[in-house]
Design goal:
Layout: H1 6-15, H2 21-31, H3 38-47, E1 96-98, E2 104-109, E3 113-116, H4 117-126, E4 133-137, E5 150-154, H5 155-163, H6 171-194
Antiparallel strand pairs: 1-2, 2-3, 4-5
Helix pairs in contact: 5-6
């Protein structure tokens, strides 16, 4: 990947197994004086399929540390989290994660407020996203945050794009797909008007 030196790539290859991603980023940036950005490291790991082997699930035969323990009230020991203390899995504002849909979120406020990175980037360039609209990736790559790759479409347009497989691997082709989606919608609307079956 352009932007990462070969020694950085070799370091990642040597250390990714068994290392949580956030820790891997810290190690790389500490070793190379932050020459490698979070996005570069994330893209390299993603593009090369470097799964660290960690999934966070309890393996068969392992016993959860809290098994059999009962605490009054909510089920948690009252003094387990004192006011002002943060849990071990706390993520600071600015942290990123990949959500269940495969999009990158960024934490924008405590205690747990996250927002889509690509939507924030689009809004920074163009202003608020209009109601009933969403931002999509023109080339289908959910890690390509170049503003020119982020396209605003209505939810109706997105439905047509998905139905007709019009989101392509190139931004310009997807832009053409949006035009085609609009034409499909207009043709469908004209047909239903002729049959007088349009929903109002």
């Amino acid at each position: 990947m352009a932007g990462l030196q070969q020694e950085v790539k070799s370091f990642i290859q040597d250390h990714y197994r068994g290392t949580p991603f956030a820790e891997l980023v810290r190690l790389v940036q500490e070793r190379f004086d932050e020459d490698a950005t979070y996005k570069q490291i994330r893209s390299y790991v993603h593009n090369h399929g470097l799964w660290n082997g960690l999934d966070g699930r309890i393996k068969p035969g392992n016993i959860p540390t809290n098994k059999g323990k009962k605490y009054p009230g909510t089920g948690h020991k009252p003094t387990q989290f004192k006011k002002g203390n943060r849990p071990a899995n706390y993520k600071p504002v600015g942290s990123e994660r990949v959500n269940s849909d495969g999009y990158v979120d960024v934490k924008i406020a405590d205690p747990n407020k996250w927002q889509l990175v690509h939507s924030l980037i689009w809004e920074a360039v163009n202003g608020p996203i209009p109601k009933g609209h969403v931002v999509i990736f023109g080339d289908g790559d959910r890690l390509n945050f170049n503003p020119e790759n982020l396209l605003l479409v209505s939810r109706a347009q997105l439905a047509r794009l998905n139905q007709n497989h019009l989101i392509k691997g190139e931004t310009e082709l997807t832009k053409s797909g949006i035009i085609v989606a609009d034409l499909i919608s207009k043709i469908a609307e004209r047909k239903c008007r002729k049959k007088n079956v349009c929903q109002r």
